[in-house]
């Protein structure tokens, strides 16, 4: 089948070292989705493979915090693949990682990602002493002779209809989001997330809001709010209810009338204020009237003395008390009337604010009753007091009901004032915080948009549900027919594992069909595998099991065409002939798994020899180099790792470039290449110790061992100067032993031009 052009996009951010300016934004148009990526240690290739591994079912709900860049709380990987001939049918994978939260995986690609990396080895075969797990159950539904072509064609038509209708809904949803953004709604607003396809389908919003158009109008009104509008005044009222109990006691007390003439007493009661004021300013010595300034004769002076005597009498004192109570009642009446007027004014101010603040729409103040009849109880008490002043001995007053009514009225007024005060405080806070009002309107606008779009999509959702139901029924029918042919997963895993073990070991190691134990010289070695197998052989067994375990990822035979292999450094600790065998195994994947369409495979490695074997033998033609923040297409078909490593050392020694995390690896590669050339059987340690120029630098071998294969560190164990000094020592050694190698790295200069 001829391969068509494919557009591939890979984005990785805040995963491992892929952060900030070093995040990956890779895109390329390719003939095949087979690629190999070379990346030096620390570039972050393993983080990418580990992210892909989150797509497997056994990773569902697992913690992935260790994938995040240090200091970051979230990260993401996304993959998009589209055939350039049909770009609308884009295949998508989205992986999001939030700290302390299970990762989110949205796999709409249709691919089954099968990942090999060190984590696969640590979790699946190393804990079992490199004995593959033979407890395998289940079947793969195979192809059968029954003709299901018509059902499959109908299945494809239904999927096409669903995709088309789903796409139309996506357009409507996107337009609805854009309309909200045009109205100033930020995507970070919580209610904005309501405008998502699945949430629109669920009919989440139950509470009603005003129409979209009306809320937009209210937002525009809020923009027109004048500056400097004063707060709404909070009317206060002061009511002394204790006076009623004092009045009750006063009316119930009998006072004996004094010997004063009734007409005289009546006159004083009528003109009390004038008389009291006059007596305050009158001077007996001057005998001059304080008002008319005329002399006062003896008769007038006698009357004045009578006034003084009466006012000093008990009866006068009691009459003053009655007048005081009447004044107190009148003051209460006036306070109530003032409170009523001020409350009406405050309510009018609130009505004006409602124009700008829709949230105040139902806000109103309770207006106290200020009708004349509301004061009947107060006036009744005043009448009783006046009657009492006319007859101080009278106690026959039935004012209990009037007093109770007055107390109830004042109590109700005080409660009304407290309620109104709370409402006014809320109004003033709303007026002062226009941002909160605006935010609430925007939230309501999102809800209104949700209701509008949800109603408009009701029919489309029903149609998709109906088509999906029909599709599921059809698929069930197809599966029932396919169930007539089932293939044992255990048998498939066994045969594939046997095939690849024989490919690598040529019969040295085999596999027991029942127990899946490794067999050596015809015997099951069981837990001894850890001690019998070399490190390279362990890596081979792990890789063979990975290939064989592919069958465990599938449920139907057609799923082989959905496989996407992600392979990270499969050649750790292997001899060269094993490395070559791994490369050939990658070539065999299509045939081994009977893949009838395309082989999808991404291979990551930091081994240049393996990288070179893959590309030179056209096992994978698309080759890339991964660097911090980018992935570049390899421009050279033949690779010379030794030469590149030597050039890095020379550049560091001469100050052209600074040391990096790969510098120690370059030193090791160059010295191992030279030592194996001179003395194939000598170890690197022996070779360095036997050469004075190299052994005089005590850090060279430590750098080779520690920084080339050492554990992960948060801080560098060696300073830059130490690495530079080591590079200079190695360059000096190479210039003495193999000067031509160093000279070959220098650019040729002809007539002063490089």
Structure description:
- It is a single chain.
- By secondary structure, the protein is α/β, with parallel strands linked by helices.
- Among the domains are: 6-127 and 552-633, 3-Layer(aba) Sandwich (Rossmann fold); 259-312, no CATH class; 641-743, no CATH class.
- The chain is 50% helix and 12% strand.
- The protein contains 26 helices and 16 strands.
- It has a 6-stranded mixed beta sheet with strand order 7-13-14-3-15-16, sandwiched between helices.
- Helix 5 runs antiparallel to helix 13.
- The protein is elongated, with a radius of gyration of 48 Å.
Task: Jot down its keywords.
alpha/beta; six-stranded mixed sheet; Rossmann fold; single chain; 50% helix
List the helices and strands and how they pair.
Elements (H helix, E strand, L loop, with lengths): L5 E8 L10 E7 L3 E6 L5 H9 L20 E10 L7 E8 L2 E7 L4 E5 L1 H7 L14 E3 L7 H34 L14 H6 L9 H12 L18 H10 L10 H9 L1 H10 L16 H14 L2 H40 L22 H15 L9 H33 L1 H23 L1 H25 L3 E3 H17 L3 E3 L6 E3 L2 E2 L4 H4 L2 H14 L14 E6 L7 H17 L7 E6 L2 H9 L5 E6 L2 E4 L7 H13 L9 H16 L5 H6 L2 H4 L4 H10 L10 H18 L1 H5 L11
Parallel strand pairs: 3-14, 3-15, 7-13, 13-14
Antiparallel strand pairs: 1-2, 1-4, 4-5, 5-6, 8-9, 10-11, 11-12, 15-16
Total number of helices: 26
Mean pLDDT across every amino acid position: 82
Query: Which regions contain 5 or more consecutive residues with pLDDT less than 50?
Result: 748-754
CATH class division of the domain at 6-127 and 552-633 = Alpha Beta
CATH topology of the domain at 6-127 and 552-633: Rossmann fold
Enumerate the strands of the largest sheet in spatial order, edge to edge or round the barrel: 7-13-14-3-15-16
Give a quick account of the main beta sheet: strands, pairing sense, barrel closure: 6 strands, mixed
Helix content: 40-55%
General form: elongated
What is the beta-strand fraction?
5-15%
């Amino acid at each position: 089948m001829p391969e068509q052009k494919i557009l591939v996009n890979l984005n990785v951010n805040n995963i491992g070292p892929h952060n900030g300016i070093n995040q990956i934004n890779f895109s390329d148009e390719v003939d095949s989705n087979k690629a190999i990526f070379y990346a030096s240690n620390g570039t972050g290739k393993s983080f990418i493979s580990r992210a892909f591994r989150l797509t497997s079912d056994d990773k569902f709900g697992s913690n992935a915090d260790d994938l995040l860049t240090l200091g970051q709380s979230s990260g993401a990987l996304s993959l998009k693949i589209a055939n350039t001939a049909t770009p609308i049918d884009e295949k998508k994978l989205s992986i999001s990682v939030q700290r302390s939260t299970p990762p989110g995986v949205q796999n709409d690609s249709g691919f089954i990602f099968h990942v090999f990396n060190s984590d696969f080895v640590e979790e699946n075969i190393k804990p079992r002493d490199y004995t593959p797990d033979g407890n395998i159950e289940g079947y793969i539904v195979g192809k059968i002779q029954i003709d299901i072509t018509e059902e499959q064609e109908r299945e494809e038509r239904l999927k096409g209809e669903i995709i088309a209708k789903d796409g139309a809904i996506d357009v409507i949803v996107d337009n609805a989001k854009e309309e909200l953004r045009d109205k100033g709604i930020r995507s970070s607003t919580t209610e904005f997330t309501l405008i998502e396809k699945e949430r629109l389908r669920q009919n989440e919003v139950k509470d009603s809001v005003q129409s979209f158009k009306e809320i937009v109008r209210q937002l525009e009104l809020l923009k027109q709010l004048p500056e400097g509008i004063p707060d709404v005044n909070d009317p206060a009222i002061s009511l002394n209810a204790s006076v009623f109990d004092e009045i009750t006691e006063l009316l119930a007390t009998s006072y004996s009338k004094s010997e004063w003439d009734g007409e005289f007493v009546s006159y004083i009661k009528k003109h009390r204020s004038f008389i009291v004021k006059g007596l305050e300013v009158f001077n007996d010595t001057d005998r001059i009237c304080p008002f008319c300034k005329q002399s006062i004769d003896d008769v007038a002076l006698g009357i004045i003395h009578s006034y003084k005597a009466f006012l000093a009498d008990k009866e006068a004192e009691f009459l003053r008390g009655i007048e005081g109570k009447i004044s107190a009642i009148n003051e209460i009446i006036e306070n109530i009337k003032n409170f009523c007027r001020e409350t009406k004014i405050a309510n009018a101010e609130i009505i004006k604010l409602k124009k700008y603040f829709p949230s105040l729409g139902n806000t109103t103040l309770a207006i106290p009753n200020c009708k004349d009849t509301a004061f009947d109880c107060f006036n009744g008490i005043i009448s009783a007091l006046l009657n009492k002043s006319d007859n101080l001995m009278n106690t026959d007053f039935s004012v209990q009901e009037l007093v109770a009514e007055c107390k109830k009225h004042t109590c109700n007024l005080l409660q009304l004032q407290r309620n109104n005060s709370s409402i006014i405080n809320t109004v003033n806070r709303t007026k002062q915080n226009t941002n909160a009002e605006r935010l609430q309107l925007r939230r309501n606008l999102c809800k209104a948009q949700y209701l509008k779009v949800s109603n408009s999509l009701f029919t489309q959702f029903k149609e998709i549900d109906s088509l999906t139901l029909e599709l599921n029924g059809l698929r069930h029918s197809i599966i029932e027919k396919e169930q007539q042919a089932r293939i044992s997963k255990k048998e498939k895993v066994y045969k594939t594992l046997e095939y690849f073990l024989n490919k690598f070991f040529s019969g040295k190691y085999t596999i027991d069909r029942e127990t899946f134990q490794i067999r050596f010289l015809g015997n099951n070695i069981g837990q001894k595998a850890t001690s019998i197998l070399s490190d390279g052989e362990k890596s081979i067994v792990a890789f063979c099991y990975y290939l064989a375990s592919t069958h465990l990822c599938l449920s139907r035979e057609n799923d082989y065409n959905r496989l996407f292999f992600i392979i990270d450094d499969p050649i750790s600790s292997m001899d060269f002939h094993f490395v070559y065998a791994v490369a050939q195994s990658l070539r065999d994947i299509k045939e081994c798994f009977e893949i009838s369409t395309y082989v999808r495979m991404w291979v990551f490695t930091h081994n240049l020899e393996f990288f070179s074997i893959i590309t030179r033998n056209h096992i994978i033609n698309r080759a890339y180099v991964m660097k911090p923040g980018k992935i570049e297409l390899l421009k050279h078909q033949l690779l010379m790792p030794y030469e590149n490593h030597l050039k890095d050392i020379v550049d560091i020694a001469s100050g052209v470039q600074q040391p990096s995390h790969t510098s120690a690896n370059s030193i090791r590669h160059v010295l191992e290449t030279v030592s194996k050339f001179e003395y194939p059987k000598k170890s690197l340690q022996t070779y360095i110790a036997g050469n004075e120029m190299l052994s005089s630098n005590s850090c060279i071998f430590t750098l080779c061992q520690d920084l080339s294969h050492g554990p992960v560190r948060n801080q560098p164990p060696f300073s830059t100067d130490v690495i530079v000094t080591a590079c200079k020592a190695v360059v000096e050694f190479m210039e003495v032993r193999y000067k031509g190698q160093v000279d070959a790295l220098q650019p040729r200069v002809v007539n002063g031009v490089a």
